[in-house]
Specification:
The structure is a single chain. The chain is 69% helix and 0% strand.
Length: 98
């Protein structure tokens, strides 16, 4: 019942109330952090050291959440990039502010 209580609290926030599907997925991901361990090796294996480009990289959690958001909303990569800058719900779901 913890998931139900957490979801109710989340839906009290107006940003999450607009998109209850994302609120549910966010709650499930928050309660099951071991899910990220399943894909961590694959994601981290793609992160090769380079002196070119950005020196920071997203966390495994952010990569997984961005992929989920992209698929749920049926976005292409450009639309996902735009949503990350324009949408509070997207930024909150992907945890960009952390």
């Amino acid at each position: 019942m913890k998931i139900l209580n957490d979801l109710r609290l989340k839906l009290d926030n107006p940003n999450w109330a607009v998109d209850p599907e994302l609120a549910l997925i966010d709650t499930i991901l928050n309660q099951n952090p071991k899910l990220y361990e399943i894909v961590a090796e694959d994601i981290n294996g793609l992160n090769q050291s380079s002196k070119l480009g950005r020196q920071d990289s997203p966390t495994v959690e952010q990569v997984v959440r961005a992929a989920l958001y992209k698929e749920i909303k049926k976005l292409d990569y450009r639309e996902l990039e735009y949503a990350q800058y324009d949408s509070r719900i997207c930024g909150g779901f992907i945890k960009l502010e952390e």
